[in-house]
């Protein structure tokens, strides 16, 4: 079914769901008379998705292989009329009645028992079949006793935990992720220079996949640490709104690559859902001046290297901690907290450092 929809979409250059539907629905219903009608709907959705992503790609690159049914590696199971997920098995409505397929659970699956099933898809990798299931859970927000300013950087995620009676600074070292990215960047450059055509495409794909997986592992571990600290300290996470990040950092070409290869948004997202799961929903604040303002006297200074130094009051600290502190206090509720003295002490004492490795 998907194959037929795909052929039609390609030959007639159709991207509108309605048009493809009008063209092909009756025909497919006739041809696959024994199948539930939901199959046709899903086939149209999948074929359109494949065709559209092909069009998007071919605008960016010179040669992209047109989609064909052999390339179909993912089967959408979004419809609750056709599929029923059960722990240990999947029931599917087919032209020959209901079919029950047993499945082996992933080791992390236990965690989602009792959650609501939202949708799923079958992914084919070689001769193995995987079932991806999306779960949903309603979490109750917990009471918080303070705020957690989070400053995400290339080499570290810096935290300022600020409560009425306590201040704590933590640096989570993710420089390993940056090292991996830099190494692979060099490798990619040399592949670009030394190889051509299919070999080049294969090598590039291989390395970019491996790089992403390794970097993701580190970022996930780091986000988990952040969420655990939020839960343990009972504080509300505060992050900067990244909408204006490109304007904020004046970038050169090299800076541009560094910015785009660093998945700030992804890290924020991952911190966000991991904290929400634990009952602490993040807030986002406008990032203006968070890296320039002196948290003690309010003077604007330009940080020089890793050290922030205020020319007015002489306050001095790691620039990322200053940013995290400012991010935290930008949230209206904690403005009046009298914590400057405590925070300065906390910064002078040995600051906690957590190093995340692959
Ligand atoms: Zn100052």
UniProtKB/TrEMBL annotation:
GO MF, any single term: DNA binding
Q: Does the keyword Cell division apply?
A: no
Which InterPro entries does the UniProt entry name for this protein?
Cas12f1-like_TNB
Q: Is the Ribonucleoprotein keyword given for this protein?
A: no
State the UniProt keywords alphabetically: DNA-binding
The residues covered by the Cas12f1-like TNB domain are 264-327
What is the name of the protein in this document?
Transposase, IS605 OrfB family
What is the organism of origin for this protein? Korarchaeum cryptofilum (strain OPF8)
